[in-house]
């Protein structure tokens, strides 16, 4: 009995027992990745990744089943439907990025969604060991490489620092120097002169790490230029 079940599981042909095992395995592997993403507060979590992985497995099973059952082909083209999964899942990944608004976030989740779909396809094709190893490697990347980035200060974030200053200024170099001292790298800057209210508004597009002492930096800018307001945000606003 167990020998028969095992043969059904490893068989390249689509059969009920093998299909159920593949769907359950892909669901579990996708859920493992989704748990890690939900732990980080991402929109796509356990259910999303589980459904993507299992759906990709089902698509692969259908790709294999149709040539075998309806065309009598043992060497059909199971890649036709599966290929559409790889391209189509990009819409889900794009949604994870667009949802974050204002800054490019969600790229890791989008990559995870794409990988979950690929894992589902691999499970559907019967590549059990490779699917499990791929899942382990993904979890290793998500857990450990982030720690390495944090330890070595690799996690740079793109932000916009908006400074509203008294008067129409001809020189904002002192503000640039303060930002530089706090290891904030200026990528670009945009200025607005408001002659009616007699204020200057500067938007600095910057890159920095999470270790920057933002309150101290703001206080220094305030003391140096008597700023009306200082804001750090993800959105440009003149």
Structure in words:
The chain is of the alpha+beta class and 238 residues long. Helices cover 59% and strands 16% of the residues. α1 (2-10) packs across α2, α6 (107-124) runs antiparallel to α7 and α8 packs antiparallel against α9 (214-225). It starts with a helix and ends in a 5-residue tail after the last strand. The model has no long low-confidence stretch (mean pLDDT 77).
Keyphrases for this structure?
238 residues; alpha+beta; 4-stranded antiparallel beta sheet; 9 helices; 4 strands
Task: Give the secondary structure arrangement, pairings included.
Layout: H1 2-10, H2 16-39, H3 46-70, H4 79-88, H5 90-98, H6 107-124, H7 128-151, E1 157-166, H8 173-181, E2 185-194, E3 199-208, H9 214-225, E4 227-233
Helix pairs in contact: 1-2, 2-3, 2-6, 2-7, 3-4, 3-6, 5-6, 6-7, 8-9
Task: Enumerate how many helices there are, as a single number.
Answer: 9
Low-confidence stretches: none
**Tally of extended strands?**
4
- SSE run: HHHHHHHEHEEHE
Please indicate the percent range of residues in DSSP E strands (runs of 2 or more).
15-25%
Could you tell me the mean pLDDT? Answer: 77
């Amino acid at each position: 009995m167990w020998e028969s079940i095992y043969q059904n599981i490893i068989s390249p042909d689509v059969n009920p027992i093998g299909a159920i095992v593949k769907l359950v395995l892909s669901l579990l592997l996708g859920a493992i990745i989704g748990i890690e993403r939900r732990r980080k507060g991402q929109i796509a979590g356990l259910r999303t990744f589980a459904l993507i992985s299992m759906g990709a497995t089902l698509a692969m099973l259908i790709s294999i089943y149709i040539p075998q059952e309806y065309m009598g082909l043992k060497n059909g083209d199971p890649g036709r439907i599966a290929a559409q999964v790889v391209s189509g899942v990009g819409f889900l990944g794009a949604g994870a990025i667009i949802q974050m608004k204002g800054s490019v976030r969600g790229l890791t989740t989008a990559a995870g969604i794409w990988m979950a779909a690929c894992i589902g396809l691999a499970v559907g094709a019967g590549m059990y060991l490779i699917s499990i190893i791929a899942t382990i490697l993904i979890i290793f990347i998500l857990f450990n490489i982030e720690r390495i980035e944090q330890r070595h200060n690799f996690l740079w974030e793109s932000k916009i620092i908006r400074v509203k200053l008294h008067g129409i200024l001809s020189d904002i170099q002192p503000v640039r120097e303060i930002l530089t001292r706090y290891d904030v790298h200026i990528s670009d800057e945009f200025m607005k002169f408001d002659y009616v209210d007699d204020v200057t508004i500067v938007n600095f597009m910057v890159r920095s790490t999470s270790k920057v002492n933002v309150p101290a930096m703001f206080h220094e800018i305030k003391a140096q230029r008597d700023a009306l307001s200082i804001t750090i945000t993800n959105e440009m606003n003149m």
